[in-house]
Amino acid sequence: MDDENGAHAHREIEVEPILTNHDTERPLQSIAAAAAAVPAAGYAMLRLRECVVSRLLFSPSTSPICSLRRLLSATASPHISPNPSSFAIEEYLVGTCGLTRPQALKASTKLSHLKSPTKPDAVLTFLAGLGLSGADVAAVVGKDPRLLCAKVDQTLALKVVGLTGLGLSRPDIARLVSLAPECLRSRNIVSKLRYYQPLFGSFHSFLRLLKRSSHLVSSDLDKLVKPNVAFLRDCGLGACDIANLCIAVPRMLTTNPERIGAMVACAERLGVPRGAGMLRQALQAVAFLSEEKIASKVEYLKNTFRWSDAQVRVAVCGAPFVLRKSKESLKRRSEFLFSEVGLEPVYVAHRPIILCLSLDGRVRPRYYVLKFLKENGLVDRELSFHTAVMMTEKVFVEKLICPHKEAAPHLAEDYAAACKGEVPTNFRFT
């Protein structure tokens, strides 16, 4: 049984060590009772309840979960909305939650059953207690309006206790909620995080993925994610490869396992077998592309670079990302490499990484430097274009720019200009 969904008796036993300190219970109850007895503005009550929730959930030693329930109940009496009998959800979303009118209109259709601000007020206070700003809360409610219907003591608070038990800090939980508000309503969020953290290396790596897609929070772990991970491992991908693949293609683990199998089969047809070092890049290149689109791009590569079937296979195996390059980008590269540099199709086919590098920011400027140095006898004529292009920027400058400061004092300046697209007609000596 999932840790989050155990019997109530087990739930009480699990949280007891985290929330046990009678010394803090009495002062907090006194604060809550005093607040409930004294009429106050909605904002003041919101801040008081935020303080109570925050201290209960994140102080080093806190009171039992039952005290949390009593305190939330005690502080829920004075509502932000002054007249519950005339409660209008759209106005509440705009005036209290901070949504825009269009956002509120859209969200209100999911909350039409609410007749009182009691639950929404408690949820807003709880979110503020996590450390979310007003803008953060507005964004969260905009993404997941149904969160306003959640029970704070029976759902939200227990989720936070479980996440804290995984080692997440208050800012961690706040960031998680901001990126994927539905996590607080997810029945298995704690067990999912327990699985995802080691898979992606850390909680912060998992957050990187959530920035692009929150599907991992809502997807079925046993029917989709785990089978896909197991299949990719069987294909020879390690944990780091799987994590990087998912960050680049967030839907990779949450799609139907048959589609993952079809992508691997497509990579194999292109010449990248299971277990190959380029399999991750190949899967990233063909992910969610139709067979027709891939075939069209392969044909374009053959025609543009004058490659045979064997040569295009070599090129795609060496740099699968060429399949993701636009036709215009590939055309510009072919014109430069063939017409200006004078390379042969077979040379490019066996060094396809050149096609994935920045043409204007790297390949073209380095060609001009190399040409200038060779024409003026400043460098070994055997130094290849490919070698110069593949050097890191630091090595390129150290080996081909710095040694010629006296013979060509403007070389560094001209190279910098070329990297910005301001290619001089001729590199200068004086």
Describe this structure in a few short sentences.
Belongs to the mTERF family. The protein is mostly helical and 430 residues long.
| Strands, count | 0
Distance between the termini: 78 Å
Percent helix: 55-70%
| Uncertain ranges | 1-49, 60-82
Strand coverage percent: under 5%
Order of helices and strands: HHHHHHHHHHHHHHHHHHHHHHHHH
Give the number of helices.
25
Mean pLDDT: 81
Sheet with the most strands, sense and barrel status: none
Approximate shape: elongated
Helix/strand structural class = mainly alpha
How many whole angstroms does the radius of gyration measure?
Answer: 30 Å
Structure characterization notes:
The protein is elongated. Helix 5 runs antiparallel to helix 6. It has 430 residues and is mainly alpha-helical. The longest helix is centred in the first third of the chain and has 17 residues, at 42-58. Helices cover 63% and strands 0% of the residues. The protein has helices at residues 8-15, 22-37, 42-58, 65-74, 89-95, 101-108, 118-130, 134-143, 152-165, 170-179, 189-200, 203-212, 215-218, 221-234, 239-248, 257-269, 279-286, 291-305, 309-318, 327-340, 345-349, 359-375, 385-390, 393-401, 411-419. It contains 25 helices and no strands.
